[in-house]
Write a structure and sequence with these properties.
Blueprint (H helix, E strand, L loop, with lengths): L4 E2 L9 E4 L2 E4 L10 E7 L6 E6 L4 H14 L6 E5 L8 H9 L3 E5 L10 H11 L9 H17 L10 H7 L1 H4 L3 H6 L1
Parallel strand pairs: 6-7
Antiparallel strand pairs: 1-4, 2-3, 4-5
Length: about 190
């Protein structure tokens, strides 16, 4: 689950050019003052998404989104929610909601590890395949566009698949991470 902010691109006469066979819009103005926060739940097995657009991300909006997930996921299934450490995810009202819904389990990603959450790939696709190639003249238009794009995605969803094992990923990151804990303790 993630909640990036998007702003409508106000450009009455966008300059459109062609990039690799697709029209791309050159960003002329981003003078909007209102952001759209998109919350998304990704079913990692099927690739389908559940989304909600809002203009704030407080505990109340988060709980409303959890209710939407609860209604859309079959009752016999457990729900594992991968989250960042945003304060709205840890309030008393969220804890109370979680206690009342035992099939939900929260898993928090470590700081600077959002790349581990597969929903980030969906947001990347939303950004590169839709938002960077579109112009919205209002927040309402932007919300409708994101909703339509998510609905189109769900007609032919594709799960994201890791192409490398965890060992391969950590080996490629070794120069940035330094010696691993296992190497430090084995001496």
């Amino acid at each position: 689950m993630r909640r990036p902010k998007y702003r409508p691109l106000i450009a009455p006469n966008p300059y459109v050019r062609w990039c690799q066979g697709f029209p791309c819009v050159k960003r002329l103005s981003t003078s909007a003052t209102v952001s759209v926060i998109t919350m998304c739940a990704l079913n990692v097995a099927s690739g389908k998404v559940i989304t909600k657009m809002t203009n704030a991300h407080r505990a109340i909006e988060f709980i409303e989104f959890l209710e939407i997930i609860d209604k859309n996921v079959p009752k016999e299934l457990g729900v594992h929610v991968v989250l960042d450490n945003y304060a709205a995810h840890k309030t008393e009202s969220v804890r109370m909601w979680l206690l009342a819904h035992p099939r939900f389990q929260f898993h928090f990603t470590p700081t600077y590890s959002s790349w581990m959450n597969q929903v980030e790939r969906w947001f990347s696709a939303l950004t590169t395949k839709y938002l960077q190639r579109s112009v919205h003249h209002s927040v309402t238009e932007l919300n409708e566009g994101i909703t339509e794009w998510a609905e189109a995605w769900n007609k032919n969803p594709k799960p994201f698949i890791w192409t490398k094992s965890a060992d391969e990923i950590f080996a490629s990151m070794q120069k940035y991470l330094g010696p691993s804990v296992s190497e430090q303790t084995s001496d």
